[in-house]
Each structure stands twice: as C-alpha cells, then as structure tokens.
Amino acid sequence: MSTQALLKPYKSNNLDLKNRVVMAPMTRSRANNDGNIPTDELQGLYYEQRASAGLIITEGAQVSPRAVGYINTPGIHTEAQVEGWKKITKRVHDKGGKIFLQLWHVGRVSHPDFHNGELPLAPSAVNPHDDVYTNEGLKKTPTPKAMTVAEIKETVSDFKNAAKNAIEAGFDGVEIHSSNGYLFHQFFSSTTNLRTDEYGGSTENKARFFFEVLDAIKEVVPEEKIGARFNPSLNNVFGMTMDENSIPTFEYIIQKLNDYNLAYVHLSEPFTDVSDIPYAVTEIAKHFRPLYNGTLMINSGFTQEKGNKIIEAGYADLVSFGKLYISNPDLVERFENNLELADWDADTFYTPGTKGYTDYPKAEELQQV
Questions:
Q1: C-alpha–C-alpha distance, residues 146 and 55, integer Å
Q2: Sorting pLDDT into bands at 50, 70 and 90, what band is 366?
Q3: Fold assignment, 5-368
Q4: Residue 339 CB burial class (10 angstroms; 0-12, 13-18, ≥19)
Q5: Helix 79-94 with 149-168: angle, nearest 10 deg
Q6: Taking the domains of the chain in order of start, what are their residue ranges?
Q7: Most buried residue, 26, 39, 175, 241, by most Cβ within 10 Å?
Q8: Closest CA to 60 of 156, 159, 152
Q9: What phi, psi does 161 have (nearest 5°)?
Q10: Which residues are tagged catalytic?
Q11: Where does residue 96 rank: exposed (0-12), middle (13-18), buried (19+ CB within 10 A)?
Q12: Could you read off the pLDDT of 205-259 as tens digits, one per residue?
C-alpha cells in the first residue's frame, strides 16, 4: 500500500474511493455528431482508459438545448444521449471505476448561432465581451437575454430532468457545474446579476437559483450522489470580475451546504493571479475547509507533490487533476511508481477525433516499444 496521501483509499458516509485522485471535468468537444451524442468508440475509450482514478467527473453535459455554448459538446437531455452515456458508464464500471456526470448550462457564454437566432439566457442583460467558438469560427458574444422567472423555473426543471437521465445512464452521481463563470456563477456575482426580484440583490437571493436546482435534483437523485463545483476567486475569465461581495457570497453558499448530505464540494484555486485584489482569497482550500463539514475536493494547477501536501495538511480530502489527465491516462499508476509524466498538446484539446484524446500511451505501453 502506497504511503502517498493521494493514493490512500477515501471512505466517507457517501463515497468509497480506491484513491483520492480525481479526474477533473474538462470540455473536449468530441461529440461532433448531429445529436451531440457521446459514443462508445471515442468517449467510451477515453474514460475507460482513465478508470484507475478514484473518481471520474465527466466533461460538462448540457442539460437542454438552451444550455449550449460550445460546439461538439455532449448533452444529457435526449434519449439518444442517455443511450450513448450508458455504454460509457458500463466501460468505466467494468474496469472498476466510478464516474459522475457534470451537469452544465453556460448561460451568457454562448451565441445565437446555437439557439436558432435567439439570444443566450442569463440572469441579467450583461455582455461578457468574450469570444465564442461556433461552427463558423470565433464570434463575439452578444448581450444576453435576462431570464424571466418562468425561464428560471424551466431551467430548474431542465437540471432535474438531466440529473434523472444521468442516473438512468448508469452514473454513480452528478456534479452541478456552478463554477467558472457559467450560469450559476452569473447569478452569484454582483457584476453579472443586476436583478431586483427574488433572484437578485441579497446574497440569499443570488444563491436562490442554485438551491432551487439542488432541491429539485435531490427529488430524483439521493443527496449523497450529488456534488457541486465552485470557483470563488475567479476573475477576468468570461468577463467575470470579483468584487467585495464575491467571497462572502461563496462563504454563505458553502456553509449552507452543511445542511445537505452531499457527496462532495469541489472547489478551484484561482485560475488567474488575484494577489493584488484585496478582497480575493488566494488559498481557497485553506480558507473554505473550516467552513464545510463534508468531503472537500480541490482543483487547479496541482502536481503530485502539491496534491499530497494539501491532503496531508488536512485542507482537502480529494484532489482533481485536469490537464495531467489529458496526457496521462494512467495518472494513478504514474504517481504510484513516480514515473515521468507526459506533456499535453494544447492544440488538440478541442479538436475532433482520436488525436490528442485517446492516443496518449500509458507508461507500460511505452516500455513495451
């Protein structure tokens, strides 16, 4: 048994994992077919190759057609998509792995090209002034449409239906993508949520949509099979800007999650340098660990050494790895044997086909050459 913290089993009331290495959710844009259906041949092999992770969290799967903001991303709102995911979960389970599906709505980070000419939905009509990659190349984001209360309620139902579909597809649980500047994060932020109704203004109101979705999902998925992801110090990504309300809002949300029996809370360290922002938090796990009583997962920029250290320090229970899992399908085995890690090719992160996706060899395959 390895003495590395990352490689020790993790058991809580809700999780039983063979190690603490988690494959982070990553958009890979490989569902390039008319129905945005994940396939056994491509996505199935990709996730199966990485099944030695303690837990796999899939790329974000859009919960409805209105949730789309990227080309070739898979969904979880049609029967064909559910059938596609069933084959993938079986492959992971047959390899002894566990896999959660990430539920995704991009909100304003989208373009009318994805919505039959209609504007993307958002809490308020605030343009992120960013670029969106469409089937016709990069296009500028428009000013989105502020959601009506009816559209908010419909979106709650979309998440509930998608979560139900995920369980039907054989997933071990779901993760709510309430992070990284997408729809939930847009509701949380004072700079993107200018509403004056029950979904805007106070911290409680800005968090209302998230908790309505969580409460709806737990009607069809046991709480202990639900995770949620947050990025409290996100700044200058997709037009998101921190202010003095940002951290208090996430403190409120994460403390309130103590009232739930979730699988985990998944946090990200800052994506950009926020050391010059007086109201930002630069060490997310250390700051939020005392506020949350359940399983805490941390992400962003971790190496094997840093991952072991943050678990040993008690600031996190699990560490999720993104780019390292792109180029190292056998990341756990490489950690276990302290083997050299392969570099990733950023040019193939979002391109169709097998190149830069399922063609990264495992260490044992390299030794056989």
A1: 36
A2: confident
A3: TIM Barrel (3.20.20)
A4: middle
A5: 40
A6: 5-368
A7: 175
A8: 159
A9: -65, -40
A10: 182
A11: exposed
A12: 999 999 999 999 999 999 999 999 999 999 999 999 999 999 999 999 999 999 9
